[in-house]
Amino acid sequence: MRKVFIAPSILSADFKNLYNEIKYLKEEGADYLHFDVMDGHFVPNISFGSHVLNSIKDVNLIKDVHLMIDDPDKFFIDFIKSGADIITFHYEALKNKEDIFKLIKKIKEKGVKVGISIKPNTGVEEILEFLPNLDLVLIMSVEPGFGGQKFMENSINKIKKLYDLKKVNGYNYLIEVDGGINDLTAKSVVDAGADILVSGSYIFKAKDKKEAIKKLLGE
Ligand code: DX5
Ligand code: ZN
Asked: Which among 65, 72, 75 has a CA at the least distance from the CA of 7?
């Protein structure tokens, strides 16, 4: 059986208590820490920057940085310096093929894993040529910008497509899904082929994070 990983999104954490909110996540069953960066331009909301990541650098989870910003090329380096293990940027922020290939290369040269994310209205067909070079593909199952939104079913087919492409071509990327993941929606994305489930409000609003993570994993 394929191993499925959980990536709690700190967007829904209690920030006055941030370190305490995340320090036991590893013991509670998480492997990644999902870090949602928003610039108020690419998405209609502002979240936090690299200094916040730097302050939680020592947490023993894989730091998965999701850049929902217009200019990932300008800022990705700050997140690498602050401890990012994976940098994911949005296809829609660049679109230009050469710029995308260049940014993939720059991130990899720093020894960090690289991902591309697509919004609900962007098809997998648009990113086909980048797939061989990616460590991760992030499928947005809500419009990026806010936590706590409803899961969009059209993401299931995209996950299936990515899973098939990966099998047929022997690609290495992990498939990550982000938005509206909870005990009711997790199974469908896992069955479709997802490797990493991002979950914000469901995990951070739960009384018992360990139990919530177990439910996401279907345990
Ligand atoms: C949305 C973010 C998500 C968000 C998920 O723009 O990219 O990572 O925090 O939150 P939930 O799990 O509450 O949908
Ligand atoms: Zn995210």
From this structure: 65
pLDDT tens, position by position, 157-195: 999 999 999 999 999 999 999 999 999 999 999 999 999
User: Hey, what are 151's tokens?
Assistant: 């899961």
Atom 4 (ligand 1): residue with closest C-alpha?
A: 147
The residue to mutate among 6, 10, 12, 177, having the most atoms of ligand 1 within 8 angstroms of its beta carbon, is 12
pLDDT digits (tens, 9 = 90+) for 105-146: 999 999 999 999 999 999 999 999 999 999 999 999 999 999
Mean of the pLDDT values across residues 83-104?
97
Per DSSP, the three-state class of 80 is helix
* CA pair distance 122, 119, nearest whole angstrom: 5
Residue 73 appears among annotated catalytic residues: no
Q: Is 36 a catalytic residue?
A: yes
| Closest alpha carbon to 114 in 159, 161, 59, 67 | 67
181 CA: nearest ligand 1 atom: 12
Ligand having the closest approach to the CA of 10:
1
CB 6 within 8 A of CB 30: yes
Answer yes or no: is pLDDT of 79 > 90.
yes
DSSP H/E element including 197:
strand 196-199
**DSSP three-state, residue 76:** helix
pTM of the predicted model over 0.90: yes
> In the predicted model, is pLDDT for residue 1 greater than 90?
no
Tell me how far apart the alpha carbons of residues 75 and 153 are, in angstroms, rounded to a whole number: 32
The encoded tokens of residue 86 equal: 């994976």
